[in-house]
Amino acid sequence: MNFLWIHVAIILFLVAGLIFAGVPLLASLLLAPKSKEKNLLLPYECGMCPYGSPWIRFGINYYFYALLFLAFDVDVLYLFPVASCYFSSKGFLPFIEIFIFVSILFAALIFFFKKGVFSWPKRIKI
Q1: Which of 46, 58, 105, 121 is 20 to 30 A from 88, alpha carbon to alpha carbon?
Q2: Are 102 and 75 in contact (CB under 8 A)?
Q3: How would you write the pLDDT of the chain (126 residues) with one tens digit per residue?
Q4: Is the CB of residue 59 less than 8 Å from the CB of residue 121?
């Protein structure tokens, strides 16, 4: 293996990055005031004292919406590199591939809609 100066630069930047991230963390541990107040352990609710238990149950629909958003968002991100290379390609093959990809996304959207994932339930009584 040939040792190049680029290896020294990479190692130097890696060490500098670790120092740049570690020094503020270490400084906050050493220099931050220590407080033993019981209000620090309470959940934060806009500066007001919390009402009720902090361990309440949320409906799972919030998580469904978050997962669906992430799935479709990441899938749509695949279209940006294809769109940037679309003008330099020849023929209809990229268009057909994009059409198949978008049609699969649309079929998944219809499937989720028919399963009732997008219908918000009434208030659930615990």
Answers
A1: 105
A2: no
A3: 677 888 899 999 999 999 999 999 999 999 988 877 776 666 666 666 666 676 666 667 677 778 778 877 887 788 877 777 777 777 788 788 888 988 988 898 888 888 877 776 665 554
A4: yes
